[in-house]
Automatic annotation (TrEMBL):
The EC number(s) this enzyme carries: 4.1.1.36, 6.3.2.5
GO BP field: coenzyme A biosynthetic process; pantothenate catabolic process
Region Phosphopantothenate--cysteine ligase, residue ranges: 11-220
Function text: Catalyzes two sequential steps in the biosynthesis of coenzyme A. In the first step cysteine is conjugated to 4'-phosphopantothenate to form 4-phosphopantothenoylcysteine. In the second step the latter compound is decarboxylated to form 4'-phosphopantotheine. Catalyzes two steps in the biosynthesis of coenzyme A. In the first step cysteine is conjugated to 4'-phosphopantothenate to form 4-phosphopantothenoylcysteine, in the latter compound is decarboxylated to form 4'-phosphopantotheine.
GO CC annotations, alphabetized: phosphopantothenoylcysteine decarboxylase complex
From-to range in the entire protein, with total length: 177 to 396 of 396
Gene: coaBC
Recorded metabolic or biological pathway in which this protein acts: Cofactor biosynthesis; coenzyme A biosynthesis; CoA from (R)-pantothenate: step 2/5; Cofactor biosynthesis; coenzyme A biosynthesis; CoA from (R)-pantothenate: step 3/5
Gene Ontology MF terms: FMN binding; metal ion binding; phosphopantothenate--cysteine ligase activity; phosphopantothenoylcysteine decarboxylase activity
Species, as recorded: Gluconobacter cerinus
Higher taxonomy: Bacteria, Pseudomonadati, Pseudomonadota, Alphaproteobacteria, Acetobacterales
Residues that bind CTP: D98, K108, P125, D126, I127, L128, F144, K158, K162
Protein's recorded name: Coenzyme A biosynthesis bifunctional protein CoaBC
């Protein structure tokens, strides 16, 4: 039997890296396969949600029933998220570049005898934190955090700092980048649950189930 527990709900999912140009041929970016975010988009759509997937460049195909908007930069990603509102749910899995070039060079930066160029960087907007502070904020906002040390302490602090409802802490000590399996803990307002290592598609299914529980039980 098909699950329509999220029918009528709109979910935003950010996924993949952002790419910040330095000049026409070079960029600043992050490692991100997009696999976990795409799997979450698929799992929410499978429960009947209308899903807008806002994705940086990845090589994955768009899951069935999902509307995907491809972007390059953090500022584009934020702009598309804001334009796609209202939504009841936002899941921010994107590996957003913390910085961009203050001004991308118009032409290719040349190698000269004066040595390497000095790059002036400026901070990118924090998409997750921005969504959390909007007047028309999605009711349930889920952030992700890739951590290598003090995973849970850092993740609990990050949930507070960003202002999101839930935070999925990713233990990246064991090379989850590009992998098919993931080891996560879910931090909510009521506590911390560590899930066994499982496929990213299973993490997505379990998270989508938890999200639909919230909407079925308490939110009109
Ligand atoms: O601070 P950190 O980058 O570890 O936070 C990770 C969480 O914040 C993820 O959910 C990520 O998608 C989101 N994020 C964002 N915009 C940024 C930086 C991070 O949405 N500029």
């Amino acid at each position: 039997a098909s699950d329509h527990s999220l029918a009528g709900r709109h979910a935003l999912v950010t996924a993949g890296p952002t790419v910040e140009p330095l000049d026409p041929v070079r960029f600043l970016s992050n490692h991100s396969s997009g696999k976990q975010g795409y799997a979450i988009a698929a799992a929410l759509a499978a429960r009947g949600a209308k899903v807008t997937l806002i994705s940086g460049p990845v090589t994955l195909s768009v899951p069935a029933g999902v509307v995907c908007v491809k972007v390059q930069t953090a500022r584009e990603m934020l702009g598309v998220c804001e334009a796609a509102l209202p939504a009841e749910i936002a899941v921010c899995t994107a590996a957003v570049s913390d910085w961009r070039a203050k001004a991308a060079a118009q032409g290719k930066i040349k190698k000269t005898s004066e040595g390497p160029p000095v790059l002036e960087l400026v901070e990118n907007p924090d998409i997750l934190a921005t969504l959390c502070r909007l007047a028309n904020r999605p009711k349930l906002i889920v952030g992700f955090a890739a951590e290598t040390d003090d995973v849970l302490d850092n993740a609990v602090a990050k949930r507070q700092r960003k202002g999101c409802d839930w935070l999925v802490a990713n233990d990246v000590r064991r090379g989850v980048f590009g992998a098919d399996r993931n080891l996560v803990s879910l931090i909510t307002e009521t506590g911390i649950e560590t899930w066994p290592e499982m496929d990213k598609s299973q993490v997505a299914g379990k998270l989508a189930q938890r999200i639909s529980d919230v909407f079925v039980s308490s939110i009109p």
